[in-house]
Predict the 3D structure of the following.
Amino acid sequence: MGAAVAGVLGFLLLAAAGGSAGDEAREAAAVRALLARLLGPGRAAAFSVSVERALAAESGLDTYRLSGGGAGARVRVVGSTGVAAAAGLHRYLRDFCGCHVAWSGSQLRLPEPLPAVPEELTEATPNRYRYYQNVCTHSYSFVWWDWARWEKELDWMALNGINLALAWSGQEAIWQQVYLALGLTQSEIDEYFTGPAFLAWGRMGNLHTWGGPLPPSWHLKQLYLQHRILDRMRSFGMTPVLPAFAGHVPKAITRVFPQVNVTQLGSWGHFNCSYSCSFLLAPEDPLFPIIGSLFLRELTKEFGTDHIYGADTFNEMQPPSSEPSYLASATASVYQAMVTVDPDAVWLLQGWLFQHQPQFWGPAQVSAVLGAVPRGRLLVLDLFAESQPVYIRTASFQGQPFIWCMLHNFGGNHGLFGALEAVNRGPAAARLFPNSTMVGTGMAPEGIGQNEVVYALMAELGWRKDPVADLEAWVTGFAARRYGVSHRNTEAAWRLLLRSVYNCSGEACSGHNRSPLVRRPSLKMTTTVWYNRSDVFEAWRLLLTTTPSLTTSPTFRYDLLDVTRQAAQELVSLYYGEARTAYLNKELVPLLRAAGILVYELLPSLDKVLASDSRFLLGSWLEQARTAAVSEAEAHFYEQNSRYQLTLWGPEGNILDYANKQLAGLVADYYTPRWRLFMEMLVESLVRGVPFQQHQFDQNAFQLEQTFVLSTQRYPSQPHGDTVDLAKKLFLRYYPRLVAGSL
Ligand SMILES: *[C@@H]1O[C@H](CO)[C@@H](O)[C@H](O)[C@H]1NC(C)=O
Ligand SMILES: *[C@@H]1O[C@H](CO)[C@@H](O)[C@H](O)[C@H]1NC(C)=O
Ligand SMILES: *[C@@H]1O[C@H](CO)[C@@H](O)[C@H](O)[C@H]1NC(C)=O
Ligand SMILES: *[C@@H]1O[C@H](CO)[C@@H](O)[C@H](O)[C@H]1NC(C)=O
Ligand SMILES: *[C@@H]1O[C@H](CO)[C@@H](O)[C@H](O)[C@H]1NC(C)=O
């Protein structure tokens, strides 16, 4: 390890060292409480949990020690921090008890008595940090959460050994105070903030105004949540990352300070300047340090601090100049405002910008940013490292510390997807990179609640020095734990998924679900996938043949539904392909047949099977939004925010279907009417001998999409029907056709 690297690591270690006996006791108590929530107080009593900083004395890296168990003996879990103890506990539950904890449900059947740890087991992570979240996760997944849901997530984070995470709730309430103090009016502020479902992009300066304004009750609720979230994170010994000023300001600043030097940035995401083209304060403007320090002072007065702050000035935004001196000054001013308030400040930067606009961010531009902050004070998230790592082409971020992050998911899409081989090898390779300044691993999905196997692997890698040696064996164990029994068929199904959907590589491979099912139809959609569809259909068959023995397992039911959903998605592609071929060959009867099956059989069947599980209901999704409101008017407003996010994204379909989901209700009332219209127009085109007009279709489709968004129809938030029966029905209808090779 070079001297520079050691210096960087040294600084970061110092920043988080310390801790008294009081802290140890508090963290141990937090983990005991987690254990009681997870297993119930009775089972929790069979464990003894303590926190001893000294356990990590040598390496300074989080460490846990397991011992005890067996007849009559308590299982002893010692961690160097609360998070380390929780990770140790999870390790015990996973590897000794065969348990599983996941978003979709947990499998916690504990053997009786608790298995003994035959030899005391001590494990230290090679990673100073295990990071979690993406700025976008707050909008795609967390936006409507209450404390009960947050509490579950924080438990999941601790069990997965996460010790660094964004804590960005409630920041608009602080910004509001700051802007009022600066002389903006309430209505100017209201016009500036985006709606709740679009706050992530307001925070990064991509958007303003769209989907707003934020009601006063929103600020109160988010402040309350932020306090509870911070308390809990700190009680586990996690480091929360607070937001800082990145330079974006409301337009009204120019009314209050007519001399201020601001630059209007370009538009973002097909939004016009009513919603994007935000104003960036010039780095040399005297107002820059004033606003930056005012915000951070107010924020830390309210919430305290752990000295790491997130800010993104040019995320997906073209800077006004590519001059290195300008970029250095823009960067330095953000950092300066931080250290003015907190001399120990470390800046956490999402490195997404470098790989998103590589044509702009040449070596000189990247160097300007990385060099503008003292070494060790800029902590870079290599956000999409499993696919496009930036550390390689920047000589390990030129000596700034970085975290190897898996991004994996865009927009919280459903759709089975993963690059498990790349994820598995990535962190170890980055650590071995010459003069590597890697200080951690991370998960930075835009949305959660999908493809849990990918997150299980990544969380495990946070505590491993080397990749998992045999992914096939690993996924076999994963399946057994997930369902609580080892079964030949389910394990075979998972191996098929591993070699197909989860072994993504190449062009068609993407964390976006680009299935025609969830896109506005056209004659030009691609149906190519990176895997052999037969593997998915075969996995589907294998899971179904495992019923009824596993049907009481919530995680099995989830996977059965998810794979059925995936099979339906594949079938839509196949029938779409048939319909298109028939149309292009001007064959009416085959067109009618494929169109009829797709619109009147396949999509309705998919909607029905989704409707049988509470985890796949539009009704539950929208209910979350409504429940966050304090009045009917607010409930309506939040619901519309949520519907926009799922579909049009902006007023005119600006980022159409980006955050697509496959939920009961959404399939029936959004995707299906669009497909019906498309097929009708194709048929009409053939019958009347007139060309199909994509432009005309797009206009008509937009009417349907907008009707869905503006609709106030309520959807059930309770499941209806039996998943296994409905999945079987779908299977029996289509699988024989697939095997016979004729749809
Ligand atoms: C931006 O688009 C909206 C509709 O989406 C429109 O109402 C508004 O006038 C447009 N603003 C500008 C500046 O073009
Ligand atoms: C405004 O800021 C820009 C960018 O920093 C700078 O190039 C320009 O000279 C400034 N203009 C004035 C009038 O200070
Ligand atoms: C690693 O750092 C050392 C010391 O700064 C330097 O001499 C060496 O060239 C670096 N190696 C690479 C591959 O960058
Ligand atoms: C994934 O695909 C690669 C080729 O792209 C192959 O070498 C590897 O064995 C596959 N892994 C699994 C688990 O199937
Ligand atoms: C896909 O898998 C099926 C079943 O294993 C096999 O028959 C077929 O040849 C495979 N197709 C390709 C393109 O590899």
Remarks:
- Residues 2, 434-435 surround 2-acetamido-2-deoxy-beta-D-glucopyranose (ligand 3) (CB under 6 Å).
